[in-house]
Amino acid sequence: MANEEIKYTIDLLLNKILSEDKQYDITKITEAYDFAAKQHIDQKRDSGEPYITHPIAVAYILLELGMDTDTICAALLHDVVEDTDATLDDIKKLFGDDCAMLVDGVTKIGKIPLFTKEEQQAENVRKILLAMSQDIRVIIIKLADRLHNMRTLNHRPPAKQRATALETMNIYAPIAHRLGIRAIKEELEDIAFRYLDPFAYSEIEQVMEKRKSDRQAFIESIQARIRTRLESMDFIKKPQIDGRVKSIYGIYKKVYMTQRGFDEIYDKYAIRIIVSTVYECYNALGVIHDMFKPIPNRFKDYISTPKANMYQSLHTTVIGREGIPFEVQIRTWDMHYTAEYGIAAHWKYKEGIQGKDRFEGRLAWIRQIIEAQQETNDVEEIVRTIKSDLAPEDVFAFTPKGDMITLPVDSTVIDFAYAIHTQVGHKMSSAKVDGKIVPLDYKIKTGEIVEIILSKDEKKGPNRSWLDIAKTNEAKAKIRSWFKKECRDENIRNGRAELEREFRRNLIRVPEEELDDFLNDDLHRHNCETVEDFYAAIGYGGIILSRLIQRFKDKYTKQYLESDKPVEIPLTATVPHKKSADGIIVEGMENCLIKFAQCCNPLPGDDVVGFITRGHGVSIHKADCQNYQNAVRDNKEPERWVKASWEESNTKIYRTTIDIVSYDRPGLLADVATILSELRIFIHESSSRELKDGYASITVTISVGGIEQLNNVIARLKRIPGVSSITRTGK
Ligand code: MN
């Protein structure tokens, strides 16, 4: 971090390379330097220094991270394609495909402009993630590039400083965090914070500075005591003990988030103990708790439950004789490398299979975000998701078998189910947390054991309301795609029901057979081929009806209400009655397909007429149905209306809606439900609302066998205390 003072020269870089244990191709690196130096020869940084100091500095940062030869070369070359005459082909020829690919990736990210609007920010992050997913080294170079630009930000104009700092805080620091590269993340945050809130920064800096010598003495004495004690134990071999102070931004966040004073922040001071084995970690913890008084609820075991970015350590906050609390972090060397270098540790320390696995896990996260984003075009949601997915805090919960599931804060049991497996999510019926049934919007907390209870119903799928409950984009994308792909029939049904509901609410009564024509414009507008496509789109949420309803109302008024040609429609007569399968006899037709019109839902016993639809058989309306009456009045297609009547006996079930008006009192709805269940009447839907003067209206949709049964039901309901009227509604 003292690199700001270092004059970047190739000699310094090469010396550093030679001092590394790792094998580097020093000839190739020197050639890359020569090429870049020649290309940038006339260019200067804003600081006035030769431009080449910047690529060298970036290469130096990457060398400290332990990156490979190609990455170092690409760092030296990272600005030549963008800023000089050199082409990607030149780089490919001179330094090979890998190097050229890395330079290309970095150049492309560089072309993504500083964000201005939120939607642009989402798109930019998306591009960065895409570049990352090709080769993670691209983003690591970009992070190093950004780090050096942040270190030299004081040479830029003030407006640029703020924009760059904001972008660093919102995009690059979270990415560095997610990749687990602590050193880069903290430095990016600290510098960005300095530009974004100079006042708070210097305040914290001054407080820290003022106490520097006290702090130094305190940390050193604690360190010495711990060292003496640990070294006297034969079960802990060669522990390393460091002291460290939290980053300025880290302290700021604590103060800001917990609303506590600076003095109340416990973990400004941290002691780090690095040992050889996990066994030694837990033993060291025992020793620490024996030496100092642990503060309750401050112990965190990130060894058994690592953070999402693979961070592992034991954390505990203890208080010593001096009365000053401090945090102790205990970890193995392996965990230490991962904590410091994150994904970069893959190059630096482990090139074996284990490293590769961890590496894959990180890439999976990036791919997930990209895939999830492709499922939605809602820009706000993309921004929200990236922010929440990049948020540093995660919760860890367990399956009953002890598998750990990592989720962002505020995730619900639905997110948990989908995180286990897509099918587990789809088939979930309820969930238990620590053995107790919880509502589906229950927010999981770290350490809880979550059991997902699956439905036995094979066809069970998610509920649409889950989209509002789920937190992770992953779960939402899976729910959405289920509704889109696997559930067309249900979408059509739901979409249709929703359209009918909206129409009813707005008093739009279009005869079913005319619906095609009525909706025609809107079908095209939404790229739907058929009415069913249109229903399906409403059903899965692709079309928002409330946005269309005004158009429908206008259209309806124009087409149906403003024409006035009252003409009697002659019904075709004198054809013998024939039976049909639905308990309806339609004149002149045998075995025709019968549908009961949704606008009036005729019941046996009602006077009815039939309408010959195009391709859907005959739809049966009540004779007093408004649509029929309108058709009569307007003399609309009289040839398509036919006489119809009920068969003598039938055992069919019909759906009808009744409206019960009653004096409002507790238990009213329960009484209605009780009577209906006593009569074995199936309730499809019910709703209630308050009326004036203490009255309430309850609307129930039920199935009945015919007019007779309905009358019986109504008679029984009328006996409920307080009920003043019961009417069959127009539905
Ligand atoms: Mn650069």
Summarize the structure.
This protein has 731 residues and is of the alpha+beta class. It has six domains: 3-204, Hypothetical protein af1432 (Orthogonal Bundle); 207-356, 2-Layer Sandwich (Beta Polymerase, domain 2), CATH 3.30.460; 393-485, Ubiquitin-like (UB roll) (Roll), CATH 3.10.20.30; 487-573, no CATH class; 580-646, no CATH class; 654-729, Alpha-Beta Plaits (2-Layer Sandwich), CATH 3.30.70.260.
Tell me what you see in this structure.
This protein has 731 residues and is α+β, with helices and mostly antiparallel strands. The chain folds into six domains: 3-204, Hypothetical protein af1432; 207-356, Beta Polymerase, domain 2 (2-Layer Sandwich); 393-485, Ubiquitin-like (UB roll); 487-573, no CATH class; 580-646, no CATH class; 654-729, ACT domain (Alpha-Beta Plaits, 2-Layer Sandwich), CATH 3.30.70.260. Helix content is 50%, strand content 15%. It contains 30 helices and 20 strands. The strands form five sheets. Strands 1, 2, 3, 4, 5 and 6 form a six-stranded mixed sheet that branches. A five-stranded mixed sheet has the order 12-16-14-15-13, with no helix packed on it. A four-stranded antiparallel sheet has the order 18-19-17-20, covered by helices on one side. α8 packs across α9. Mean pLDDT is 78; it is low at 1-6, 350-359, 376-392 and 564-580. Manganese (II) ion is lined by residues 54, 78-79, 145.
Distance between the termini: 74 Å
- DSSP E strands, number: 20
Give the rounded overall mean pLDDT: 78
Number of distinct helices: 30
For this structure, the CATH topology of the largest domain is Hypothetical protein af1432
The helix content is: 40-55%
Bound compounds, each kind once, are: manganese (II) ion
Number of domains: 6
Radius of gyration: 36 Å
CATH architecture of the largest domain: Orthogonal Bundle
Shape: elongated
CATH level-four homologous superfamily name of the largest domain: Hypothetical protein af1432
CATH class of the largest domain: Mainly Alpha
